Amino acid sequence: MKQFQPSYIRSHREGTLRNKILEINDSNTNCNLCPHRCGIDRTQLNTGKCKSGSLPVISSYSPHFGEEPPLTGSLGSGTIFFANCNLSCIFCQNYDISQCGVGEEMSYSDLARIMINLQQFGCHNINFVSPSHMVNAILNALPEAIEMGLNIPLVYNSGGYDLASTIKILEGIFDIYMPDLKYMDNSIAHELSGIDDYVERATESIVEMQRQVGDLEVDEYGIARNGIIIRHLVMPDNIAQTNKVIDFVRELSTNTYFNLMDQYRPAYHAISNPKINRKLTAEEFQRAYNYALDNGLSRIAG
Ligand code: SF4
Questions:
Q1: Looking at residues 282-289, what average pLDDT do you find?
Q2: Is ligand 1 within 6 A of the CB of residue 49?
């Protein structure tokens, strides 16, 4: 099989990466990188919904063995957890990172060195967790990382609340997109994540991601090279409208690598919401899984 080269290397060589950095930096000074469109200058302020300035606040980074098998392989996925988030999910299992901002502010050069460290550990990819509010940092760090020899795919591992126009700028940078599609009901998205237009923004962005990278492709060892992975956490009483999520994924492509997740448990503030203050039952998950099977999805992880 032909040696795979991540698309960002070509973008760097051809000069398009530089243009994308300028475009992203421009957005960052009147921030409209994500659908909140806070309009603040993040080089000066961190008062947007994501509470983030320009520099990355990193809570941890390491080879991670709990991701989907095509990402984890035998040597791990090189995860970098950004602090803060553009969602406010009341059931977040990582709320100390996403809502309390636990982490250390670093420079773009630090971020480039972290990528190289993870590659030197043998990780199969660099997996940015909660990247939506940090695309500026990722892009600004990338040229230095490329000059230091970065040559593994980048994974955009988001909660799904992305802006399709920002995703468009990222074409030729990320080879693997891994968004959540959390809900297909905006009233529930409002109640559980504080977002009124989740369905529209997430589905538009996923359509753009799919247009760029297509279905997931793996190498001869089963390691992801490029493509999209969609995740969905099944919730109690089908309040996330899992059937509609599956309908959307089917329309996108029945060959989508779809991770239907069964690990819902009430974390953070979920215990005080009667709709989600219990674990998912095995029957509820099986019903969702069967619906995905019956609708022709052929690559269901879960
Ligand atoms: S990235 Fe942050 S500051 Fe920018 S629009 Fe989104 S929430 Fe607001």
A1: 97
A2: yes
